[in-house]
């Protein structure tokens, strides 16, 4: 799932550097104190070029995450978008994953991050189906984690910070150890929050529901896209708090994320969900999502940053 396939160049602090040279010192602040924010973006290849899904929106979220942890990035959203475009061209990749990261680098240690410099990098590499090749069709199993989503007052889920992913990692490892494919975290009030790297949706009697942002989740761009696509297709979509039993009794449950795309959940805590594989609403939304990201739906081209091939 996560083995890196190296590409040629990484963009770092305004320059293209060779993959192997994009290193940082072991005393970089972020390594010790989690002072980094990042993004995960997918780029899809069609016959004319590379289509980067919601690139500008992801870079805006990066800037917002940075702002919330007191980092003012030395690059604008437009500069980060242009850098990504240059990088994808330079690496001549097919479909790939884009990982921008902004972090407190080398120069000062101690809890106060402010004396440490800010470094910004963007990497791209091929990344296959996040939850395994069969997951998109067959679904994956999930378990409710004994680890909780942190409250909005402690490493908030709304900030896509490296620090938050310690919690995701704990939940994910536990899920794997218990024989599940992925973890679902409840928040401190016991409401369903999200997966270790995905937002979550349920379908019951044709109505789609997903936890509200106020339940302490990441404001997922795939989540926002699915809400918009579903509403425009005539579905009722509610942003409402969900309890664990809402998951058990749903007809369908699915995860969304840039990496996970739209992944059905076949069972939760050993209880089969609906028909135990991708249900009809999930199938519809997943297909629609893939059609959109591959540029087949004119109405949603607004979400694609198109990098034309230069012949
Ligand atoms: N919640 C969490 C905790 C999360 O990590 C992600 C994305 C989402 C929701 C969905 O957000 P969005 O991608 O904007 O729809 N997780 C990213 C990183 C995964 C990783 O393993 O690293 C991703 O999907 O790229």
Features of the shown structure:
D-amino Acid Aminotransferase, Chain A, domain 2; 8 helices; D-amino Acid Aminotransferase, Chain A, domain 1; 17 strands; alpha+beta; 311 residues; 8-stranded antiparallel β-sheet; globular; binds ligand PPE; 28% strand
Description:
By secondary structure, the protein is of the alpha+beta class. The chain folds into two domains: 9-125, D-amino Acid Aminotransferase, Chain A, domain 1, CATH 3.30.470; 135-293, Alpha-Beta Barrel (D-amino Acid Aminotransferase, Chain A, domain 2), CATH 3.20.10. Helix content is 27%, strand content 28%. Helix 2 (55-68) crosses helix 3 (77-91). The model has no long low-confidence stretch (mean pLDDT 96). The structure holds ligand PPE.
Task: Please write out the topology.
Layout: E1 9-12, E2 15-18, H1 29-33, E3 36-38, E4 41-45, E5 49-53, H2 55-68, H3 77-91, E6 96-104, E7 118-125, H4 135-138, E8 140-144, H5 164-177, E9 182-186, E10 192-195, E11 199-204, E12 207-210, H6 221-232, E13 237-239, H7 244-248, E14 252-257, E15 261-268, E16 271-272, H8 280-293, E17 304-308
Parallel strand pairs: 8-9, 8-15, 12-13
Antiparallel strand pairs: 1-2, 1-7, 3-6, 4-5, 4-6, 5-17, 6-7, 9-10, 11-12, 11-14, 14-15, 15-16
The structure holds ligand PPE.
Ligand PPE binds next to α6 and β14.
